[in-house]
Structures are given as C-alpha cells and as structure tokens.
Amino acid sequence: MSVASYVKDIADTVKSTFEGMSITFSHLFRKPMTIQYPDKIPVPIQETLPRRYRGILEVDLDICTGCLACERDCPITCITIGIEMNKETKQRQFTHFDIDVCKCMYCGLCSEACPTGAIRHSQEFEGASYNPAGLVRHFAPTQQNLYKPKKGGETEPKLVTKVEIGLKYLDEFATPDGGAAAEES
Amino acid sequence: MQAFIDQLIQEGAFAGVPREVVYAIAMVLTALIVLSVFVAPLAGVTSWLERRVWARMQSRIGPNRVGPQGVLQWLADGIKNLLKEDLIPAAADAKLFSLAPYVVFMGFLCTFVVIPFGANLIVADLNIGILYILAVTSLVVVGILMAGWASNNKWSLLGGMRSAAQIVSYEIPAGLALLNVVFLAGTMSMQGIIKAQGWAPWDWFLFNNPFIFAAFFLYFTAALAEGNRTPFDIPEAESELVAGYVTEYSGMRFLFFFFAEWGNLYVIGAVATTLFLGGWQVPPLPIFDNNPLLLGIAQFVTFFVKAYMWVFVAMWVRATLPRVRVDQLMALCWKYMVPLSFICLLGTIGFMFMPENLHRVISAATLGFAVAVMVVFLVRVVFQIRNAKPELYLKPHI
What we know:
The complex is a heterodimer. Chain A is built from 5 helices and 6 strands. Chain A is α+β, with helices and mostly antiparallel strands. In chain A, the strands form 2 sheets. In chain A, strands 2, 3, 5 and 6 form a 4-stranded antiparallel sheet that branches. Chain A has a two-stranded antiparallel ribbon with strand order 1-4. The longest helix of chain A is centred in the N-terminal third of the chain and has 25 residues, at 3-27. Chain A is elongated. Chain B is mainly alpha-helical. Chain B folds into 3 domains: 1-80, no CATH class; 84-353, no CATH class; 355-398. The two termini of chain B are 43 Å apart. The model of chain B has no long low-confidence stretch (mean pLDDT 84). The interface between A and B is medium-sized, with 22 and 28 residues.
C-alpha cells in the first residue's frame, strides 16, 4: 500500500461519509412515505385503490338473472345459490346467495361469466371476523325475485343505472385480459 | 458533593452517626437520584428519539402512537419487557448469565460520577476524571464477554469475542485523541479541563489547532465503536449473529444491555462536550451575577444541549452508514486510526512549542475551516433537497 493510496483511502472515507450524511439529513425535511392505515388518513383507503382492484366479491341481486353461471365457473365452489318457485306468485326466487370469502381466491372467473355484471369485485378488502361463519357473505337475506332482462333495454328507472354499472364493469374489467384492451382503446 | 456532605456534618446534621455511614448513605442516595431522575428517562427518551429520527431519515414515521407523538413509547417497551418471561437457558452458566447485564450497566453508569453537568453539579471531581472514564467503560468488555461466554451459544460467544477485540482496539485511538486535550489543559480533571476553555467557540479546544480538530473526530468514531454502535455494531450484527451476545437474553436483562447502549450515547456526547466543546461554560451575562440558581440552570442546559447534539449525530451516523466487516473494522482501527491519532498527538505537541502569537492565527484558521465545512455541508443538503424535488415537510412531527 503506497502513501498515495493510503491518503486517498482516508479522503474517500471522509468525503463519502460527508456526502452520505448530507443525504440523510436532507431526508429529515421530506414528507414520510408511510400511509398511516387505518385511522390517520384523509380518505378511506378503499377509495384510493385502483378500480380494477380484485377485492371481496359483491353481488347486485337486483340485476342477477339467476343463471348460475358464476356458481358453475367457480373453481372452488365458494358460491352457493338457491332458487325455488314461489307457488303463490309463480315467480322464481332466490332462497340464498352466499359467497364464502374464506374460500374465494379472487380469480375473477365468476365476474367474467356473469351476463349482466351483477357479481363483481369491490375495492373492499377488510375481511377480519371473529369466526369463519362471519366471512360468509349473504346477499339474499330475504326471498327476492330473479331479474328478467327486457327486450329493447331496461326501462324501470331504479334498475337502469344498475344495469349500466354492471355492463360497464363487464366491458372494462371483467375480461380475460383484465380490461387491458378496453384501456388501450 | 463531598464538600456538601462535609458541611452538613460540620453543622451537626448527623450527630452521633459515624462519618463513614453518612458517606455510604449519601453515595447510595446520590446514585439512586442520578439513576432514577436522569439516567433512566434519558436512556428511554433517547431510544424513542432514535427511532423517530432514524425513521424520518428513511422516509418513515416511527413510533407515534403511545402518548403524544409516541414519547411514552419507552415506558410501554419497559413495561412490556418487565412482564416478559426471564429465561435462563438450561445449559447456560446461570450465575454469570444473570450477572452480565448488570456488569455492562455498571460500566456505563459509573461514568456519571465524573460527568460535570454544571460548575457545582458534579458527583465527584476526581483529579483523574478522564482516566477514570476510560477505566470504568472497560468494565463493559467484561460484562459483554461474560454474557457471550455464559450463554453457551456460538453466536453469543462470537459476539462477545468480537466485542472484546473491538473495544480493546478502539480504546487506543480514543485514549490518544483524549490525550491531546489533557496535554493542552494540563489536567485530567473534568472541571479543570472545562475551566481551561471558554464559553465562546474560539476558546474551545476543538478549534485550538487543526490536529485537535481531527482528533475530535477520531475520538467520536472510536467512541461509537466502543459503544457498539452502527456502523461498528458487529458484536450484535443481526445478519450474521442473530443478536450476538444478547441472543439468549429476554425480558429486563435484555433491556439492560440496550439501556446501557443508549445511555452510553449520552456519555459519549458528554465527554466530547467536556473535552472539546467547552462543557458548561456560559457567557458572563449580567443577569447571572446575583443569581446562582439561574446560572446553574443555564450551565446545565448548555451542557445538556451540547452533549445531546452528539447523541443526535450518533443517530444520524447510524442512519447513514452500513455496518463494516470484521476485518474492515480492525483495519480501520489499526491501519488508519491509531497512526492518525499519533500524528494528531505529535501535531498538538508541536503546536504547543510554537510561539504564542502563531497560536491565535492557527486557531482562527481552524475555526474558519470548521465554519467552511458547515457551509459546504448546508450547500450539499440544499442540493440534495433540490435534486430529489421532494414534497417538503418541515414539521418535526407527523
């Protein structure tokens, strides 16, 4: 080791330490990156998630036709749908529409198969529960009639927006490429 | 302190009690007061502050939940550790294992005997003050080796051995750097060294000559290494040794090691302040003339702020530099710091032989150099902020 390299080593040490300390000191004046989930945040975290986020499944039962496509497509049968004929009104009704969030693997196959976009992923991800039964989402608490699509489009004002939301979801997100084609165009 | 007790005895406050008993009780009481009122909260708050400062330097937030801005985090951690199970491994040497944390802690706590918080606020102004500090801090090595050996664990043993090698090596540059000041002051007493300096920066030993300026940084680096601080924390290197000599410890015994580490930071700062930065010296303002209490408070605050600034620098270094390897650690000490500290010592001796009027010129030049370094540093900080274009957040809390 020559004297020149010895002195250079010392100079390098001092210089790099000096420079490094100026960088760390400048960080004291920067805003921290941390998001203080769940309480010290300006808006709920669900609202800041991307729209294609695959959260817990939600079902809009008002526009569900009861075709059972989602139940058949689910690889792990976490969706169970019960439909029976109401003898008084002669209408088919849901007896139950349950999704077991414990089992769901968020593959999105059900939302791709749905003809009306009634079943879809929400931005919700907080699934904590005290028992496994609490993780089963019941979407048909009361017996409810199936949705019948009308020829020439929906006319009832209460359902028009719901159908629009469902179809938009189908077009933009519930496609095998995750809506990439819709985003490009 | 002794003078105060002597005065009380003279006045007959403890009539009929043997002098030695009074001294013993006074010593125990002083130790308890120092420990519970100053050292314990200091080490605790330092642990919280370190986590906060470190977090902010890494664009995180750090503990801010327990109490306002998390200031009570250290209490929560202390209570948690008190309630934890105190495990002693079956194969460990139980007696040594239990004793080791207290030996480490004692090595650190004994230094508070000679730390001068103010002109009259010192437990004992020993005439060998600096030598005493170097001597009692060596007790830490014994404790760490004890912990490493008694744990009967290869990580602990390696950590203890590394620590012993490290502390013994780094005592040499630290001692030589401190010797510069002892030469200039002509005394080893802490109060004597402070009295040899003045309140103004140009009266401090730090800017006395360029060699002592370099020696200060050698001392600070060596002190960090002696305190097992990052970047020299190879005895407890997490990536290699799990936790080194504290691997097998749990609960309060575990905490005692870190108690000593955080408290030791303050000791490093206090020694640096006493020897290089003018200690408790305050400007002779007229309001202090007839107000000894105010003067005492001003001295304490001055000393505390100066000492705590170096605690902050130690945190800052920790956030900046990565851990060095064992061979790099030894090379840094023996190949670089020991020769450099000898050069500094010779330089200071040479400086002392120079004519008196040359002293002032050299001191002024050193102070000018230090100011220039500070200015360049600020310029670099501003450059870093501009270069990164960050979202500025000037509040210290979040």
